[in-house]
């Protein structure tokens, strides 16, 4: 079921949050705006309003309880991204993808390994993170200056 730009979609992996499709990637993924945050999703993660309401629990089995990160009292394990050897543009693309994946999993933070080197990738990553509304804060690891921890809102 292909979506078009401007369509409303429900992101099943985010607890049925509703968003608007703002772009379609060449790889078949969709960029959505959900409560002021943009993210990329695969088509199988999305549903229309009609699709989400037509599934009814069977009479024979009681519905399984849905566990969210709030129910368990903790978030999913943090994501980890190694950017060693990448150009700045490639590093930023991988960073955005990992943030999307981590948010979909319910993680509250990710570890970005950019290395020490010349600092170009590190500074570009920090500029990019500062512009993202989903990022609450980020900081360089006090033990390893080649690592930045990113915390989500």
What does this structure look like?
By secondary structure, the chain is an alpha+beta fold. Helices cover 25% and strands 29% of the residues. It has two domains: 8-51, SH3 type barrels (Roll), CATH 2.30.30; 77-152, 2-Layer Sandwich (Ribosomal Protein S8, Chain: A, domain 1). It contains four helices and nine strands; from the N terminus they run βββββααβαβαββ. The strands form two sheets. A five-stranded antiparallel sheet has the order 4-3-2-1-5. A four-stranded mixed sheet has the order 6-7-9-8, with helices on one face. Helix 3 crosses helix 4. The protein is elongated.
Shape: elongated
Give the strand order of the largest sheet, numbering strands 1, 2, ... along the chain. 4-3-2-1-5
Flag low-confidence runs: 51-58, 64-72
Number of strands: 9
Strand residue percentage: 25-35%
| CATH architecture identity of the largest domain | 2-Layer Sandwich
Compute the CA-based radius of gyration: 18 Å
Give the end-to-end Cα distance, rounded to a whole number of Å.
31 Å
SSE order: EEEEEHHEHEHEE
The largest sheet, given as strand count, sense and whether it forms a barrel, is: 5 strands, antiparallel
Number of helices: 4
Task: Bin the helical content.
Answer: 25-40%
Tally of individual domains: 2
CATH topology of the largest domain: Ribosomal Protein S8, Chain: A, domain 1
Q: Return the average pLDDT rounded to an integer.
A: 81
